[in-house]
């Protein structure tokens, strides 16, 4: 059993490595797909001049981007440069699009320069760093270029041609629908990106170069099977699964986020039959009707799919493939759900979602863990960062929640959010991540303090974090929160003669905040002057009839220079609702 799990992890890691080289460059594939769909002789807007860019783009641009990205993943910028040089050797040594060669030579180039740096970087004499770094990258890249030109390019050309012929043979034999027997379960094990971007996108691009479209872009991206599953839950489901299925259906079908339906399948494994049936049916009709796309549909939403239908392609055929898959998936799932006599368990969906998160983490070579609470205090922490894959969305909302608690506890610690890839390894930093991303964040910032939570939007760990920072018990902290809430209304503009925006480095935000408040005062008939000053000038405004406006990152500095002034601390100097609240209190 352990060997089976290990094999699955290895396959997932390989697939993730392949997709990590292609996914960042999907925009380039889409641009090339649009270029092809518009300007080739059979395109929507035939243009011989613009069409000249189609061939060089697939021959040079796309493989070099993949090779560059593959090298970057292994060893940053130096790895990217050497990876691109090595990839060019494979490109120049072959007459077929060198996607597979790029996936091999890019990481190889990054690995080669990484090993060189590990062996010699600390031995370089002072003053010779730039010379050694530039020549090492150039010479290693040169050697790999020759290797790729003579060996890799020709070999991969033969291999690529063989794979292409094999795929075409499967298509000719009308057996392509059987691929969905493997594709649909693999998607739910989070091999979806590996399949779509690591395999189907490169092969599909080669088919587009020859025929103007490819059915391979519809194999994994078809939203029909997931649509049918969620629709069945909407009609025949129970409890939380039923009530949440409508929103999930919209996100899946229009937003293209297929991962959202995976927990619904995992909570009732018999539904694997439904997605397989839907996938096979959709591909059967796509093959029967000659469907195909001119580029990858990413994300796999119905909007992205329809936008990539080439001229001469049938929108009706593509829609038939999608909705036939949805219908069959719905019918099979409905039978399974109606036959299920089990009493609804409200926790079943949550457990399935947890299992899905575990599978997602495993696909990235990670393991979920309930990380123990780290020990820290406000003496150790100078900033708090919420980190996630994209650095937006739920992490931003989580940061806002904790920022409010930190503020109410009387602490002046800034709370921000970032993508994990943008984190820097510094001390005196507390990193908050979701559990499945904790290993990545810890690897990126080993010197920081790390706390993992199961849900950015609802977790008791925020109170624990603030209690540790404030060195207070839960009861004392609750009292502080209550007092802080009561004090939110203390700013009374009837006793304020001037409002001052204080700034350190962010003069621009203070300027915009000043302009915003001036406009609000003007519209509400308030005649109080509004100005802005640097922090060190606040000593001239250290009076109770002055209101100083600043953000939480600047709060402690303001209190040092103007301890007697009234203080309004806001999350955003420009968009906060506190300005209107002040005026409302003024007129009570």
Automatic annotation (TrEMBL):
Reactions accelerated catalytically: D-mannitol(out) + N(pros)-phospho-L-histidyl-[protein] = D-mannitol 1-phosphate(in) + L-histidyl-[protein]
GO CC annotations, alphabetized: plasma membrane
Record-linked InterPro entries: PTS_EIIB-like_sf, PTS_EIIB_2, PTS_EIIB_2/3, PTS_EIIB_mannitol, PTS_EIIC, PTS_EIIC_2, PTS_IIC_mtl, Sugar_PTS
Cell division found in the keyword field: no
EC number in record: 2.7.1.197
SUPFAM superfamilies with a match to the protein in the record: PTS system IIB component-like (SSF52794)
PANTHER family: MANNITOL PERMEASE IIC COMPONENT, PTS SYSTEM MANNITOL-SPECIFIC EIICBA COMPONENT
Descriptive protein name: PTS system mannitol-specific EIICB component
Domain PTS EIIC type-2: 14-346
A Pfam cross-reference name: PTS_IIB
Domain PTS EIIB type-2: 382-477
GO molecular-function terms, A-Z: protein-N(PI)-phosphohistidine-mannitol phosphotransferase system transmembrane transporter activity; protein-phosphocysteine-sugar phosphotransferase activity
């Amino acid at each position: 059993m352990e060997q089976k799990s290990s094999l699955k992890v290895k396959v997932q890691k390989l697939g993730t490595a392949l997709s990590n080289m292609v996914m960042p460059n999907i925009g380039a594939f889409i641009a090339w797909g649009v270029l092809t769909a518009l300007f080739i002789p059979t395109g929507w807007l035939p243009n011989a001049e613009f069409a000249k860019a189609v061939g060089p783009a697939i021959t040079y641009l796309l493989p070099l981007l993949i090779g560059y990205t593959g090298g970057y993943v292994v060893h940053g910028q130096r790895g990217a440069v050497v990876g691109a040089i090595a990839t060019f050797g494979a490109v120049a040594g072959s007459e077929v699009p060198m996607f597979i060669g790029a996936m091999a030579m890019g990481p190889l180039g990054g690995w080669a320069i990484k090993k060189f740096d590990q062996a010699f970087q600390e031995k370089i004499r002072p003053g010779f760093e730039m010379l050694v770094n530039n020549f090492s990258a150039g010479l290693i890249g040169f050697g790999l270029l020759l290797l790729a030109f003579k060996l890799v390019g020709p070999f991969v050309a033969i291999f690529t041609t063989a794979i292409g012929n094999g795929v075409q043979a499967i298509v000719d034999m009308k057996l392509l629908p059987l691929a969905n027997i493997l594709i649909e379960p693999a998607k739910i094990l989070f091999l979806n990106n590996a399949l779509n971007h690591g395999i189907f996108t490169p092969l599909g691009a080669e088919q587009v170069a020859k025929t103007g479209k490819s059915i391979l872009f519809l194999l994994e991206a078809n939203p029909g099977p997931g649509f049918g599953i969620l629709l069945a839950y909407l009609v025949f489901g129970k409890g939380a699964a039923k009530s949440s299925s409508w929103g999930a259906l919209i996100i899946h079908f229009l937003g293209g986020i297929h991962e959202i339906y995976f927990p619904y399948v995992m909570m009732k494994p018999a539904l694997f039959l439904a997605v397989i049936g839907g996938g096979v049916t959709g591909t059967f009709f796509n093959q029967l009707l000659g469907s195909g796309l001119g580029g990858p549909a990413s994300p796999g939403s119905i909007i992205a799919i329809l936008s990539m239908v080439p001229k001469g392609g049938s929108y009706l055929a593509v829609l038939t493939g999608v909705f036939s898959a949805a219908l069959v998936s719905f019918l099979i799932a409905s039978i399974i759900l109606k036959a299920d006599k089990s009493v609804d368990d409200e926790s079943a969906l949550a457990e399935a979602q947890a299992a899905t998160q575990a599978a997602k983490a495993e696909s990235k070579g990670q393991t979920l863990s309930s990380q123990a609470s780290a020990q820290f205090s406000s003496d150790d922490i100078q900033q708090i960062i919420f980190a996630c894959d994209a650095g937006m969305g739920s992490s931003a909302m989580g940061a806002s929640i904790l920022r409010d608690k930190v503020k109410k506890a009387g602490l002046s610690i800034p709370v921000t959010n970032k993508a994990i890839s943008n984190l820097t390894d510094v001390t005196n930093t507390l990193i908050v991540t979701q559990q499945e991303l904790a290993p990545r964040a810890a690897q990126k910032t080993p010197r920081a303090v790390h706390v993992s939570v199961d849900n950015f939007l609802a977790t008791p760990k925020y109170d624990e974090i603030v209690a540790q920072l404030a060195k207070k018990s839960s009861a004392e902290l609750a009292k502080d929160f209550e007092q802080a809430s009561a004090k939110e209304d203390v700013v009374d503009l009837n006793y304020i003669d001037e409002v001052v925006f204080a700034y350190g480095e962010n003069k621009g935000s203070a300027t915009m905040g000043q302009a915003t408040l001036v406009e609000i005062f003007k519209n509400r008939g308030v005649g109080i002057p509004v100005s802005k000053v640097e922090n060190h000038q606040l000593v001239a405004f250290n009076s109770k009839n002055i209101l100083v406006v600043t953000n939480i990152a600047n709060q402690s500095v303001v209190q040092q220079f103007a301890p007697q002034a009234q203080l309004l601390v806001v999350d955003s100097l420009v968009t906060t609702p506190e300005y209107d609240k002040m005026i409302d209190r003024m007129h009570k």
